[in-house]
Design goal:
Layout: E1 2-6, H1 11-22, E2 26-31, H2 38-44, E3 48-51, E4 64-67, H3 76-84, E5 88-90, H4 91-98, E6 104-109, H5 114-127, E7 133-135, E8 147-148, E9 154-158, E10 163-165, E11 168-171, E12 180-183, H6 197-209, E13 216-220, H7 224-231, E14 237-243, E15 250-254, E16 261-266, E17 271-275, H8 281-296, H9 301-308, E18 319-324, E19 327-332, H10 337-351, E20 356-360, H11 365-368, H12 376-379, E21 385-389, H13 398-402, E22 408-411, H14 414-424, E23 430-434, H15 442-452
Parallel strand pairs: 1-2, 1-4, 2-3, 4-5, 6-9, 6-12, 7-9, 12-13, 13-14, 14-15, 19-23, 20-21, 20-23, 21-22
Antiparallel strand pairs: 7-8, 10-11, 15-16, 16-17, 18-19
Helix pairs in contact: 5-8, 5-9, 6-7, 8-9
Length: 454
Protein backbone atom coordinates (compact mmCIF):
# COMPACT_ATOMS: atom_id res chain seq x y z
CA UNK A 1 0.00 0.00 0.00
CA UNK A 2 1.32 3.42 -0.98
CA UNK A 3 1.03 6.25 1.57
CA UNK A 4 1.83 9.79 0.49
CA UNK A 5 2.34 12.26 3.35
CA UNK A 6 1.78 16.01 2.93
CA UNK A 7 3.95 17.93 5.38
CA UNK A 8 6.29 14.99 5.91
CA UNK A 9 9.19 16.91 7.49
CA UNK A 10 7.20 18.09 10.49
CA UNK A 11 8.30 16.34 13.66
CA UNK A 12 5.10 14.34 14.04
CA UNK A 13 4.53 13.55 10.36
CA UNK A 14 8.13 12.55 9.80
CA UNK A 15 7.96 10.18 12.74
CA UNK A 16 4.69 8.76 11.43
CA UNK A 17 6.41 8.14 8.09
CA UNK A 18 9.07 6.06 9.86
CA UNK A 19 6.37 4.01 11.59
CA UNK A 20 4.53 3.40 8.31
CA UNK A 21 7.75 2.37 6.56
CA UNK A 22 8.54 -0.11 9.34
CA UNK A 23 5.02 -1.55 9.05
CA UNK A 24 5.71 -2.33 5.40
CA UNK A 25 4.03 0.53 3.55
CA UNK A 26 5.55 2.27 0.58
CA UNK A 27 6.01 5.81 1.86
CA UNK A 28 6.60 9.04 -0.01
CA UNK A 29 6.00 12.62 1.04
CA UNK A 30 6.45 16.30 0.39
CA UNK A 31 7.11 19.49 2.31
CA UNK A 32 8.17 23.08 1.73
CA UNK A 33 10.98 23.14 4.29
CA UNK A 34 13.25 20.12 4.13
CA UNK A 35 16.10 20.27 6.65
CA UNK A 36 17.88 18.03 9.18
CA UNK A 37 17.49 16.20 11.44
CA UNK A 38 14.14 14.99 10.07
CA UNK A 39 15.07 15.04 6.38
CA UNK A 40 18.26 13.12 7.15
CA UNK A 41 16.59 10.26 8.99
CA UNK A 42 13.78 9.98 6.43
CA UNK A 43 16.24 9.73 3.54
CA UNK A 44 18.29 7.19 5.48
CA UNK A 45 15.19 4.96 5.71
CA UNK A 46 14.63 5.12 1.95
CA UNK A 47 11.63 7.46 2.07
CA UNK A 48 11.34 9.61 -1.05
CA UNK A 49 11.10 13.34 -0.28
CA UNK A 50 9.63 15.88 -2.69
CA UNK A 51 10.15 19.61 -2.15
CA UNK A 52 7.02 21.67 -2.69
CA UNK A 53 3.38 20.86 -3.40
CA UNK A 54 3.13 20.54 -7.16
CA UNK A 55 0.11 18.23 -7.74
CA UNK A 56 2.14 16.24 -10.26
CA UNK A 57 3.45 14.28 -7.27
CA UNK A 58 0.00 12.68 -7.05
CA UNK A 59 0.04 11.38 -10.63
CA UNK A 60 1.12 8.01 -9.25
CA UNK A 61 -2.19 8.07 -7.35
CA UNK A 62 -1.29 6.85 -3.86
CA UNK A 63 -3.71 4.53 -2.08
CA UNK A 64 -4.04 7.00 0.80
CA UNK A 65 -2.86 10.56 1.44
CA UNK A 66 -2.00 11.48 5.04
CA UNK A 67 -2.55 15.21 5.44
CA UNK A 68 -0.55 17.12 8.04
CA UNK A 69 -2.07 19.83 10.20
CA UNK A 70 0.06 22.50 8.51
CA UNK A 71 -1.90 21.89 5.28
CA UNK A 72 -4.92 24.09 4.53
CA UNK A 73 -7.45 24.64 1.79
CA UNK A 74 -5.76 26.30 -1.16
CA UNK A 75 -2.69 24.10 -0.96
CA UNK A 76 -2.28 22.68 -4.50
CA UNK A 77 -1.94 19.09 -3.30
CA UNK A 78 -4.88 19.36 -0.90
CA UNK A 79 -7.06 20.70 -3.70
CA UNK A 80 -5.90 17.91 -6.04
CA UNK A 81 -6.69 15.24 -3.42
CA UNK A 82 -10.21 16.59 -3.02
CA UNK A 83 -10.81 17.10 -6.75
CA UNK A 84 -9.54 13.65 -7.72
CA UNK A 85 -11.31 11.83 -4.89
CA UNK A 86 -8.12 10.32 -3.50
CA UNK A 87 -8.73 8.79 -0.04
CA UNK A 88 -7.21 10.90 2.75
CA UNK A 89 -6.85 10.85 6.52
CA UNK A 90 -5.16 12.83 9.29
CA UNK A 91 -1.89 11.62 10.78
CA UNK A 92 -3.22 11.08 14.33
CA UNK A 93 -6.25 9.15 13.06
CA UNK A 94 -4.06 6.94 10.86
CA UNK A 95 -1.76 6.24 13.79
CA UNK A 96 -4.67 5.30 16.04
CA UNK A 97 -6.36 3.03 13.49
CA UNK A 98 -3.22 1.18 12.38
CA UNK A 99 -1.20 0.94 15.60
CA UNK A 100 -2.32 2.59 18.83
CA UNK A 101 -5.71 1.01 19.37
CA UNK A 102 -4.04 -2.31 20.15
CA UNK A 103 -1.29 -0.90 22.40
CA UNK A 104 -0.80 0.28 25.99
CA UNK A 105 -0.17 3.94 25.17
CA UNK A 106 1.89 6.09 27.53
CA UNK A 107 1.26 9.69 26.46
CA UNK A 108 3.26 12.73 27.58
CA UNK A 109 1.41 16.04 27.28
CA UNK A 110 1.83 19.64 28.46
CA UNK A 111 3.14 22.97 27.22
CA UNK A 112 6.80 22.27 27.97
CA UNK A 113 9.08 19.26 28.22
CA UNK A 114 7.02 16.79 26.18
CA UNK A 115 9.86 15.72 23.90
CA UNK A 116 12.42 15.35 26.67
CA UNK A 117 10.05 13.54 29.06
CA UNK A 118 8.78 11.17 26.36
CA UNK A 119 12.39 10.41 25.41
CA UNK A 120 13.24 9.68 29.04
CA UNK A 121 10.23 7.40 29.36
CA UNK A 122 10.99 5.49 26.18
CA UNK A 123 14.59 5.04 27.28
CA UNK A 124 13.60 3.84 30.77
CA UNK A 125 11.34 1.18 29.24
CA UNK A 126 14.07 0.22 26.77
CA UNK A 127 16.64 -0.03 29.57
CA UNK A 128 14.20 -2.22 31.51
CA UNK A 129 14.05 -4.65 28.56
CA UNK A 130 10.50 -3.77 27.51
CA UNK A 131 11.38 -2.81 23.90
CA UNK A 132 8.62 -0.21 23.52
CA UNK A 133 7.43 1.49 20.40
CA UNK A 134 7.55 5.27 20.47
CA UNK A 135 6.85 8.42 18.48
CA UNK A 136 8.64 11.53 19.68
CA UNK A 137 8.83 15.06 18.27
CA UNK A 138 12.61 15.00 18.10
CA UNK A 139 15.49 12.56 17.80
CA UNK A 140 16.33 10.93 21.18
CA UNK A 141 20.09 10.47 21.40
CA UNK A 142 19.68 7.06 23.09
CA UNK A 143 17.96 5.79 19.91
CA UNK A 144 18.71 6.08 16.20
CA UNK A 145 15.40 7.62 15.10
CA UNK A 146 12.40 9.60 16.34
CA UNK A 147 9.95 6.69 16.04
CA UNK A 148 9.65 2.91 15.86
CA UNK A 149 6.93 0.27 16.08
CA UNK A 150 8.49 -1.63 19.01
CA UNK A 151 8.29 -5.29 19.96
CA UNK A 152 5.81 -5.22 22.86
CA UNK A 153 2.42 -3.73 23.68
CA UNK A 154 3.91 -0.57 25.18
CA UNK A 155 4.00 2.60 23.08
CA UNK A 156 5.30 5.99 24.24
CA UNK A 157 4.03 9.07 22.42
CA UNK A 158 4.54 12.80 22.68
CA UNK A 159 0.96 14.05 22.97
CA UNK A 160 0.51 17.47 21.39
CA UNK A 161 -2.58 19.66 21.92
CA UNK A 162 -2.26 21.28 18.48
CA UNK A 163 -5.17 20.65 16.13
CA UNK A 164 -5.34 17.50 14.01
CA UNK A 165 -6.02 18.70 10.45
CA UNK A 166 -7.95 21.31 8.48
CA UNK A 167 -10.89 18.86 8.51
CA UNK A 168 -10.54 17.81 12.18
CA UNK A 169 -10.05 20.64 14.67
CA UNK A 170 -9.77 18.41 17.74
CA UNK A 171 -6.37 18.27 19.43
CA UNK A 172 -4.12 15.54 18.09
CA UNK A 173 -3.81 13.83 21.44
CA UNK A 174 -7.48 12.81 21.65
CA UNK A 175 -6.72 10.21 18.95
CA UNK A 176 -4.03 8.48 21.01
CA UNK A 177 -6.23 6.63 23.56
CA UNK A 178 -3.67 6.71 26.42
CA UNK A 179 -3.76 4.34 29.36
CA UNK A 180 -0.96 6.22 31.13
CA UNK A 181 -1.11 10.01 30.81
CA UNK A 182 1.48 12.55 31.93
CA UNK A 183 0.52 16.24 32.04
CA UNK A 184 3.81 18.06 32.59
CA UNK A 185 2.44 21.60 32.90
CA UNK A 186 -0.12 23.84 31.20
CA UNK A 187 0.21 27.42 29.94
CA UNK A 188 -1.21 29.45 27.09
CA UNK A 189 0.38 28.67 23.72
CA UNK A 190 -0.61 28.13 20.07
CA UNK A 191 -2.32 31.50 19.76
CA UNK A 192 -2.91 30.75 16.08
CA UNK A 193 -5.58 28.16 16.97
CA UNK A 194 -6.59 28.79 20.60
CA UNK A 195 -8.31 32.00 21.69
CA UNK A 196 -7.34 31.64 25.33
CA UNK A 197 -6.10 29.25 27.99
CA UNK A 198 -9.64 28.07 28.70
CA UNK A 199 -9.86 26.67 25.16
CA UNK A 200 -6.71 24.63 25.76
CA UNK A 201 -7.99 23.41 29.13
CA UNK A 202 -11.13 22.15 27.38
CA UNK A 203 -9.01 19.96 25.08
CA UNK A 204 -7.07 18.54 28.03
CA UNK A 205 -10.36 17.69 29.71
CA UNK A 206 -11.41 15.83 26.54
CA UNK A 207 -8.16 13.88 26.81
CA UNK A 208 -8.69 12.96 30.46
CA UNK A 209 -12.22 11.78 29.65
CA UNK A 210 -10.87 8.96 27.45
CA UNK A 211 -8.31 7.57 29.92
CA UNK A 212 -9.82 4.29 31.20
CA UNK A 213 -10.64 3.73 34.86
CA UNK A 214 -7.73 1.27 35.02
CA UNK A 215 -5.43 3.97 33.68
CA UNK A 216 -3.40 6.62 35.46
CA UNK A 217 -2.98 10.39 35.15
CA UNK A 218 0.25 11.93 36.46
CA UNK A 219 0.24 15.70 37.01
CA UNK A 220 1.89 18.35 39.19
CA UNK A 221 0.27 20.33 41.97
CA UNK A 222 0.59 24.09 41.93
CA UNK A 223 -0.50 24.62 38.31
CA UNK A 224 -3.84 26.45 38.32
CA UNK A 225 -4.75 25.45 34.76
CA UNK A 226 -4.18 21.75 35.46
CA UNK A 227 -6.18 22.05 38.69
CA UNK A 228 -9.11 23.48 36.74
CA UNK A 229 -8.90 20.62 34.25
CA UNK A 230 -8.89 18.02 37.01
CA UNK A 231 -11.78 19.74 38.78
CA UNK A 232 -13.93 19.04 35.70
CA UNK A 233 -13.69 15.34 36.49
CA UNK A 234 -11.26 12.45 36.43
CA UNK A 235 -12.21 8.78 36.22
CA UNK A 236 -8.75 7.21 36.53
CA UNK A 237 -6.12 6.86 39.22
CA UNK A 238 -4.45 10.25 39.84
CA UNK A 239 -0.84 10.67 40.97
CA UNK A 240 0.11 14.21 41.98
CA UNK A 241 3.70 15.45 42.07
CA UNK A 242 5.52 18.41 43.53
CA UNK A 243 9.03 19.80 43.78
CA UNK A 244 10.49 19.49 47.25
CA UNK A 245 7.23 19.23 49.20
CA UNK A 246 5.53 16.26 50.85
CA UNK A 247 1.89 17.12 50.25
CA UNK A 248 1.57 15.10 47.05
CA UNK A 249 1.98 11.47 46.06
CA UNK A 250 5.55 11.97 44.82
CA UNK A 251 8.10 14.74 44.94
CA UNK A 252 11.72 15.61 44.25
CA UNK A 253 14.43 17.22 46.31
CA UNK A 254 17.43 18.78 44.60
CA UNK A 255 20.76 17.78 46.10
CA UNK A 256 22.93 19.88 43.76
CA UNK A 257 22.60 23.37 42.37
CA UNK A 258 22.83 22.31 38.74
CA UNK A 259 20.14 19.62 39.08
CA UNK A 260 22.45 16.75 38.17
CA UNK A 261 21.92 14.99 41.51
CA UNK A 262 18.45 14.74 43.03
CA UNK A 263 16.27 12.47 45.13
CA UNK A 264 12.81 11.15 44.25
CA UNK A 265 10.53 10.33 47.16
CA UNK A 266 7.07 8.75 47.19
CA UNK A 267 4.43 9.24 49.87
CA UNK A 268 4.69 5.48 50.50
CA UNK A 269 8.25 5.97 51.73
CA UNK A 270 10.11 4.71 48.65
CA UNK A 271 13.12 6.81 47.74
CA UNK A 272 15.85 6.79 45.11
CA UNK A 273 18.66 9.14 44.13
CA UNK A 274 19.44 10.07 40.54
CA UNK A 275 22.80 11.15 39.15
CA UNK A 276 22.69 12.13 35.49
CA UNK A 277 23.99 14.51 32.83
CA UNK A 278 21.03 16.86 32.37
CA UNK A 279 20.80 20.34 33.86
CA UNK A 280 18.07 22.29 35.58
CA UNK A 281 15.18 21.89 37.95
CA UNK A 282 12.70 21.63 35.07
CA UNK A 283 14.40 18.45 33.89
CA UNK A 284 14.19 16.98 37.38
CA UNK A 285 10.41 17.36 37.17
CA UNK A 286 10.43 15.82 33.69
CA UNK A 287 12.39 12.88 35.10
CA UNK A 288 10.00 12.45 38.03
CA UNK A 289 7.04 12.22 35.65
CA UNK A 290 8.85 9.75 33.39
CA UNK A 291 9.76 7.55 36.37
CA UNK A 292 6.17 7.51 37.63
CA UNK A 293 4.79 6.66 34.19
CA UNK A 294 7.29 3.80 33.93
CA UNK A 295 6.28 2.67 37.42
CA UNK A 296 2.69 2.36 36.18
CA UNK A 297 3.82 -0.38 33.78
CA UNK A 298 5.99 -2.17 36.33
CA UNK A 299 9.42 -0.50 36.23
CA UNK A 300 10.88 0.13 39.70
CA UNK A 301 12.31 3.49 40.74
CA UNK A 302 15.76 1.93 41.09
CA UNK A 303 15.76 0.70 37.50
CA UNK A 304 14.50 4.09 36.28
CA UNK A 305 17.32 5.85 38.15
CA UNK A 306 19.85 3.53 36.55
CA UNK A 307 18.38 4.26 33.13
CA UNK A 308 18.43 8.03 33.66
CA UNK A 309 22.13 7.85 34.56
CA UNK A 310 22.64 6.78 30.94
CA UNK A 311 20.11 9.16 29.38
CA UNK A 312 21.61 11.34 26.62
CA UNK A 313 18.73 13.79 26.05
CA UNK A 314 17.38 14.80 22.63
CA UNK A 315 18.70 16.58 19.57
CA UNK A 316 18.03 20.30 19.84
CA UNK A 317 17.16 20.18 23.57
CA UNK A 318 20.24 21.85 25.06
CA UNK A 319 22.26 19.64 22.76
CA UNK A 320 25.96 20.25 23.23
CA UNK A 321 27.46 20.70 19.78
CA UNK A 322 31.04 20.98 20.94
CA UNK A 323 33.81 23.52 21.50
CA UNK A 324 34.80 25.68 18.54
CA UNK A 325 37.61 28.19 18.90
CA UNK A 326 37.17 28.00 22.65
CA UNK A 327 33.40 28.71 22.49
CA UNK A 328 31.03 26.06 23.86
CA UNK A 329 28.08 25.81 21.48
CA UNK A 330 24.58 24.48 22.35
CA UNK A 331 21.39 24.03 20.31
CA UNK A 332 17.94 24.34 21.87
CA UNK A 333 14.37 24.26 20.52
CA UNK A 334 12.93 26.91 22.91
CA UNK A 335 9.56 28.18 21.62
CA UNK A 336 8.02 29.95 24.64
CA UNK A 337 9.27 32.44 27.30
CA UNK A 338 8.97 29.84 30.06
CA UNK A 339 11.06 27.38 28.05
CA UNK A 340 13.70 30.04 27.38
CA UNK A 341 13.86 31.02 31.06
CA UNK A 342 14.04 27.49 32.48
CA UNK A 343 16.60 26.34 29.91
CA UNK A 344 18.89 29.31 30.52
CA UNK A 345 18.48 28.94 34.29
CA UNK A 346 19.64 25.34 33.99
CA UNK A 347 22.57 26.43 31.85
CA UNK A 348 23.57 29.11 34.35
CA UNK A 349 23.46 26.60 37.22
CA UNK A 350 25.72 24.32 35.19
CA UNK A 351 28.32 26.84 33.94
CA UNK A 352 28.49 28.93 37.11
CA UNK A 353 30.21 32.28 36.58
CA UNK A 354 31.40 31.50 33.05
CA UNK A 355 30.07 33.85 30.33
CA UNK A 356 26.62 32.74 29.10
CA UNK A 357 25.27 34.17 25.84
CA UNK A 358 21.94 33.42 24.15
CA UNK A 359 21.08 33.79 20.46
CA UNK A 360 17.31 33.58 20.00
CA UNK A 361 14.99 33.48 17.00
CA UNK A 362 11.38 33.73 18.32
CA UNK A 363 9.67 32.18 15.31
CA UNK A 364 6.80 30.01 16.61
CA UNK A 365 3.32 30.96 15.42
CA UNK A 366 2.47 32.29 18.89
CA UNK A 367 5.68 34.32 19.04
CA UNK A 368 5.06 35.82 15.61
CA UNK A 369 1.67 37.08 16.77
CA UNK A 370 3.31 39.00 19.59
CA UNK A 371 1.43 37.25 22.40
CA UNK A 372 4.57 36.98 24.55
CA UNK A 373 6.46 40.06 23.36
CA UNK A 374 6.45 41.72 26.79
CA UNK A 375 7.86 38.59 28.46
CA UNK A 376 10.80 37.91 26.18
CA UNK A 377 13.38 40.26 27.65
CA UNK A 378 12.85 38.91 31.16
CA UNK A 379 12.97 35.31 29.92
CA UNK A 380 16.62 35.76 28.89
CA UNK A 381 17.69 37.87 31.87
CA UNK A 382 19.98 35.19 33.32
CA UNK A 383 22.24 35.36 30.24
CA UNK A 384 25.08 37.88 30.24
CA UNK A 385 24.12 38.99 26.73
CA UNK A 386 21.28 38.07 24.38
CA UNK A 387 21.25 38.48 20.60
CA UNK A 388 17.69 38.42 19.19
CA UNK A 389 16.99 37.79 15.51
CA UNK A 390 13.77 39.24 14.08
CA UNK A 391 12.05 36.81 11.65
CA UNK A 392 11.14 38.55 8.38
CA UNK A 393 7.45 37.65 8.63
CA UNK A 394 6.97 38.83 12.21
CA UNK A 395 4.31 41.54 12.54
CA UNK A 396 5.69 43.33 15.61
CA UNK A 397 9.05 44.85 16.46
CA UNK A 398 11.44 43.03 18.74
CA UNK A 399 13.59 46.16 18.93
CA UNK A 400 10.77 48.18 20.51
CA UNK A 401 10.69 45.70 23.38
CA UNK A 402 14.44 45.45 23.87
CA UNK A 403 15.76 48.99 23.34
CA UNK A 404 15.79 49.82 27.06
CA UNK A 405 17.13 46.41 28.18
CA UNK A 406 20.82 46.25 28.96
CA UNK A 407 22.70 43.37 27.35
CA UNK A 408 19.97 42.55 24.79
CA UNK A 409 20.20 43.60 21.15
CA UNK A 410 18.02 42.89 18.10
CA UNK A 411 19.11 42.09 14.53
CA UNK A 412 17.19 42.10 11.26
CA UNK A 413 20.27 41.33 9.18
CA UNK A 414 21.49 37.75 9.60
CA UNK A 415 24.98 38.34 8.21
CA UNK A 416 25.53 41.23 10.61
CA UNK A 417 24.41 38.99 13.48
CA UNK A 418 27.11 36.48 12.53
CA UNK A 419 29.76 39.19 12.21
CA UNK A 420 28.99 40.64 15.64
CA UNK A 421 28.85 37.23 17.34
CA UNK A 422 32.25 36.30 15.96
CA UNK A 423 33.61 39.67 17.09
CA UNK A 424 32.00 39.79 20.54
CA UNK A 425 31.95 36.22 21.86
CA UNK A 426 35.21 35.34 23.61
CA UNK A 427 36.77 31.92 24.29
CA UNK A 428 35.33 30.29 27.39
CA UNK A 429 31.80 31.50 26.60
CA UNK A 430 28.84 29.12 26.62
CA UNK A 431 26.68 30.14 23.62
CA UNK A 432 23.10 28.82 23.49
CA UNK A 433 21.26 29.02 20.14
CA UNK A 434 17.46 28.93 20.51
CA UNK A 435 15.00 28.45 17.64
CA UNK A 436 12.30 25.97 16.64
CA UNK A 437 13.40 26.19 13.00
CA UNK A 438 16.56 25.92 10.89
CA UNK A 439 17.69 29.47 11.78
CA UNK A 440 19.52 29.88 8.46
CA UNK A 441 21.98 27.11 9.43
CA UNK A 442 23.49 29.41 12.04
CA UNK A 443 25.00 26.45 13.90
CA UNK A 444 27.17 25.48 10.92
CA UNK A 445 28.17 29.09 10.26
CA UNK A 446 29.26 29.69 13.84
CA UNK A 447 31.16 26.41 14.06
CA UNK A 448 33.19 27.44 11.03
CA UNK A 449 33.65 31.08 12.01
CA UNK A 450 34.72 30.38 15.59
CA UNK A 451 37.06 27.57 14.51
CA UNK A 452 38.72 29.75 11.88
CA UNK A 453 39.00 32.83 14.08
CA UNK A 454 42.61 33.93 14.52
Amino acid sequence: MHLHILGICGTFMGSLALIAKELGYRVTGSDLNVYPPMSTQLSAKGIELIEGYDPVQLDDRPDLVVIGNAMSRGNPCVEAVLDQGIPYISGPQWLHDHLLQSRWVLAVSGTHGKTTTASMLAWILEYAGMKPGYLIGGVPLNFDSSARVGETDFFVIEADEYDTAFFDKRSKFVHYAPRTLVINNLEFDHADIFHDLAAIERQFHHLIRIVPSSGQVIAPTGNAAIARVLDRGIWSDLTLTDSGEARSDAWIMSLSGDGQHFRVELASGQTVEVNWALQGEHNQVNALHAMLAARHVGVTLDVSAQALAEFKSVKRRMEYLGEFGGVHLYDDFAHHPTAIATTLAGARASVGDAPLVAVIEPRSNTMKQGVFQNQLAASAAVADNTYWYQPADQSWSLADNMEQVEGQVVYNNFDQLIIDLVSDVTPGTHLVIMSNGGFNSIHTRLKEEFSNRS
